[in-house]
Amino acid sequence: MRLYINFCCCLIIGLLACNQPYVIKPKGYQQIELPAKQFQSFSEAGYPYSFEFPTYAVIDKNVNYLGTDMRKEAWLNIRYPQFGATLFVSYNDITPKTSLDTLVRDAYTFANNHNSKANFIEDSAFEVNDQVKGVFFHIGGDVATAYQFFATDSTRHFLRAALYFETTPNEDSLAPINQYLFKDMQHMVRSLRWK
Hints:
The protein has helices at residues 2-17, 100-112, 171-191; strands at residues 39-42, 49-54, 58-60, 64-65, 68-69, 76-80, 85-93, 120-127, 133-140, 147-152, 157-165, 193-194. By secondary structure, the protein is α+β, with helices and mostly antiparallel strands. The chain has one domain: Protein Transport Mog1p, Chain A.
């Protein structure tokens, strides 16, 4: 009987001591080490443009699009191995067949393809100089690409880029890297020159 009373007392004390509701601990994310910003130049034969890109990135010129080798079209990828990210860069000559209006409309279409998952899509025009102007797209939410842009001189050259990650999109966990790489994209645009 004494054992039963001790058990009941302990049970009552235990129940009364736990007066705070149980809260599930949220998932945590590991700290991301961001390298110092240093840039190098990309200016190679066969590419009608040059720009600066980060030293912690790698240029991949072996680009295939739907089974077609796009090296002769001056396409390339800028890979960020430590972040599992790639900036896909495509280039088009402005011709009567591929007019500026068509290329700009396509760039807006690519950005708007994320409407079903996006919380918002913001576009902001920029002009570096008379030869380099365009639009940055910021796409919010758990989308495959948070940042895209196009740059053009309006007469001959049109360059488009989109940043993708090799992971399931999670806006919160990717936010620091997205903001960090967006600054690299801005630097790329500021240093962009046509040949």
